Amino acid sequence: MNDGGGIRPAYAGIARYVQSAGGGALEAKRREAEVLFRRIGVTFAVYTEGGDPERLIPFDVIPRILARGEWDSLRRGLEQRVRALNAFLADVYGDRRILKEGLVPAELVLNNEGYRAVMEGFTPPGGVYTVISGIDLVRTGPEAFYVLEDNCRVPSGVSYMLENREAMMRLLPNLCAAHRIAPVSHYPEELLDTLKSLAPPACQGDPTVVVLTPGPFNSAYYEHSFLADEMGVELVEGADLFVRDDTVFMRTTAGPRRVDVIYRRIDDEFLDPQAFRPDSALGVPGLMKAYRAGRVTLANAPGAGIADDKAVYPFVPAMIRFYLSEEPILQNVPTYMCERDEDRAYVLDHMEELVVKLARGSGGYGMLVGPHSTAEQRADFAARIREKPGDYIAQPTLALSTVPTLSEGGMAPRHVDLRPFVLFGKNQVRIVPGGLTRVALREGSLVVNSSQGGGTKDTWVLESDPPPMSQSMGAEGMTQTMGGMTQSLGKMDFGGTKD
């Protein structure tokens, strides 16, 4: 909906469908989607809770929609940001110009737990560190998208983007056909082409690409298997690979086969017991030596994590200006760094207004949402900040956009974010139109992570706006009966800006 309470043009077709679908139709589609996802095996794991950790990620059948013009602006901003992040990584492992200029504090980088000294003085094939990036965006106004955080290590979620689209086309084919939706199904092909483009100079012929997984007990194992299958490459574990003469080989029934590119879904510290954790049984001994010898490509590069550290995040606009001589297209969320005395004092005095995060946290853990917190929780976080101020940042509580979502009581507004996936290959950046929309299914919640009760939506980028609506769909025009409850979509309180 727009700020005037009417339906945004991009949602016109959805509005017509909801009006005419009939009582309970969407709820029936939601249940059908759950059966479909369960049959396919689209699951994720939560290790912090007892019992069976495997569960389905909730899927909402009302898509999140972006007009083509909105997406084109986002795409330009995403490409700019990833190029700057990659330049930053090349610099800090090379000449360190940005550190010498004092634009980014040297201690913030060189003492960072994500910094990998083994990468110093080494340039990956093609000069690309961030081959696959997931950039989390939030919307706070009709044209205002902000970057919430960057994910440059082993970003996940693209399989849900692809499966969500497949589910929508199965469940609501007529609705999909009525819209000119930009496709996303070519992402695996784009990913494979990107990986092959970065094969090391020693590669001869068609590069051999593999996906390296920690194994079936990893929370994202479904995605590892899915992407390997979609790309038509082997899914391997550490024990399936070995290094000989600084060259990586894969064990096969026909004998050893050379590996040129590894899309690794293993964290840095477990990649190679000779270079990182000696107790790791997940990695490949000698892998980093082969990498530095230019005999194999790793995507993403070890040490890329310093570019997505939340304490480094406030400096990304400065990186864009420094490396690209451009003004940032996408803006950061204002951020307070608790290691600074002035920022820390402000945060401690305004805990009830801010979102406080661990600088190296993920998954929605280690976070305080001030307006929804108790006095006891705020006191606990204040003590943590005083003890280790460098571990925390804080940001204002944004008036995040909401989108219509199917809830237990019918249609209701829920907060969302968006994670587009950016592929950076040799001299080319590729971004499929859309991304993963995550939705906070709990009423009033700002936490969209699946491990914290969030779900997902299909993300539609329309190639063109739908035709004009044949009749007014204003505040009185969208009444839908579902499960005995009548919801007037035009009268819903969307709590701020609406998508």
From TrEMBL:
SUPFAM superfamilies: Glutathione synthetase ATP-binding domain-like
UniProt cross-references to Pfam families, sorted A to Z: CP_ATPgrasp_2
Region (Disordered): 450-471
Superkingdom of source: Bacteria
Domain Circularly permuted ATP-grasp type: 63-440
Listed PANTHER family: BLR5612 PROTEIN, SLL1039 PROTEIN
Protein's recorded name: Circularly permuted type 2 ATP-grasp protein
Species of provenance: Roseomonas indoligenes
Organism lineage string: Bacteria, Pseudomonadati, Pseudomonadota, Alphaproteobacteria, Acetobacterales
